[in-house]
Amino acid sequence: MKVSGNREIGKSGDRKALALETMNRVMQTIRTTLREIFDDSAYERFLLRTHASRSVVSYRAFTRERDAAMLKRPRCC
User: I want to staple 8 with a disulfide (CB 3.0 to 4.6 A). Which of 1, 18, 21, 46 is the partner?
Assistant: First the structure.
């Protein structure tokens, strides 16, 4: 049997465990990417920075801050 890291390669259970672990990593990457795309991670960072809790008021403040930052950015062309 070949050894990869701490695992023996070649057993059916090992391959299934490796496939499951790989699938979990892929799903975590997709979840993290979507959170960044849809500003969920940015909102979490805003809450941590302002010591606020999730609420309509804090989300409104977040969107205002985000929109104001976008307006300040120079536009090309």
Answer: 1
Distance CA 4, CA 13 (A): 15
Neighbours of 61 (CB within 10 A): 15
Between CA 27 and CA 65 the distance in angstroms is 30
d(CA 53, CA 25): 29
* Residue whose token pair is 């023996």: 8
What kind and span of H or E run contains 18? helix 12-37
Model confidence over 2-55: pLDDT tens digits? 555 565 555 667 888 899 999 999 999 999 999 888 888 999 999 999 999 999
- CA–CA distance, 24 with 17 (Å, rounded to integer): 10
Provide Rg for the chain, Cα atoms: 21
